[in-house]
Design goal:
This protein has 290 residues and is α/β, with parallel strands linked by helices. The chain has ten helices and eight strands. It folds into two domains: 253 residues, Rossmann fold (3-Layer(aba) Sandwich); 31 residues. Helix content is 49%, strand content 14%. Strands 3-2-1-4-5-6-7-8 form an eight-stranded mixed sheet, sandwiched between helices. It is globular. The two termini are 23 Å apart.
């Protein structure tokens, strides 16, 4: 998929990987609606992105010309755990750009929101799973519904982690959510493969973002940090490479590679045995949504 004139939604676009990716996508000619929870921060970034993009693209100087600037970015304040709030995202994009969303990228995430000692099931105790996994599942479902209803190809990119493959004893909820992201991606990616709706996942090792601090940063530095530029380039590759469909791209300090689809022959056989059931289920989805 070429990015020029495409509309991209980014969950978690005000800082870290999300912000860098937002800026990169705009530089490549895309329109971006980026989600976050802090209105002041989001609106300030929206203004900076639009002013910067218009100056770069047309060199506008006069006040009259600036009033006619083209909007290329819009901030949408949203609690991504809320289905209705996520659903409104599609109207925001259409109202702002006059185009429907082509790409949905889910980056937003938090570390463990509770621990074994303080686990009282109070509100927020399982926020990690609600934000990192449940909200991502909602985002995937809404995006798939959108692409099917509009009879258009689409790209969904989920964000996992090195902890999507191994345990995190000090952050088990985070690891569980990132394992879940890979399962979600492979499931929907396999179901919709060859329909034009692509679902893939990124699994970067430690990237230098505000989330990596203190002792974690010491561990990350010893393992090897992933540069932000390589991480962003990998996201762009997944968007543009239509052959990536139900895949997981791993980004380490040394290399970027696509994980083998079937780690065990049994997994491939299981997929093949379910092919007819998948076809019927997929046809039912398209029939009911279109």
């Amino acid at each position: 998929m070429h990015l020029k004139e495409k509309v991209v939604a980014i969950y978690g676009g005000t800082s870290g990987i999300g912000r860098e990716l937002t800026e990169k996508l705009i530089s490549l000619g895309a329109y971006v609606v980026f989600l976050g929870t802090k209105e002041e921060k989001g609106k300030a970034l929206e203004k900076a992105l639009n002013e910067g993009a218009n100056n770069d693209r047309s060199g506008l100087k006069s006040k009259r010309q600036k009033q006619k600037q083209k909007q290329v970015a819009v901030f949408y304040q949203c609690d991504i755990t809320d289905w209705a709030a996520q659903e409104k995202l599609y109207a925001v994009a259409m109202d702002t750009f006059g185009k429907s969303i082509d790409v949905v990228i889910i980056i937003a995430g938090v570390l463990d929101s509770s621990n074994l000692v303080n686990d009282t099931e109070k509100e927020g105790g399982y926020r990690t799973l609600e934000i990192n996994l449940t909200a991502a599942a909602k985002a995937n479902r809404l995006a798939i519904q959108h692409f099917v209803r509009n009879n258009k190809p689409g790209c969904i990119i989920n964000t996992s982690s090195i902890y999507g493959f191994c345990g995190a004893p000090l952050a088990p909820l985070y690891a569980a959510s990132k394992h879940g992201i890979i399962g979600l991606t492979k499931s929907y990616g396999t179901l919709f493969r060859s329909t034009g709706i692509r679902v893939n996942a990124m699994a970067p090792h430690f990237v230098d973002t505000p989330m990596v601090t203190g002792p974690s940063k010491q561990v990350a530095s010893a393992l090897g940090m992933v540069s932000m530029s390589r991480c962003i380039d990998a996201y762009i590759r997944v968007i543009e490479d239509d052959s990536l469909d139900g895949d997981v791209m791993v980004i380490t300090a040394e290399k970027t590679f696509v994980e083998k689809r079937y780690q065990d022959p049994t997994f491939e056989k299981l997929d093949q045995l379910c092919s007819e059931r998948k076809r019927k289920y997929r046809e039912m989805i398209f029939e009911q949504l279109q």
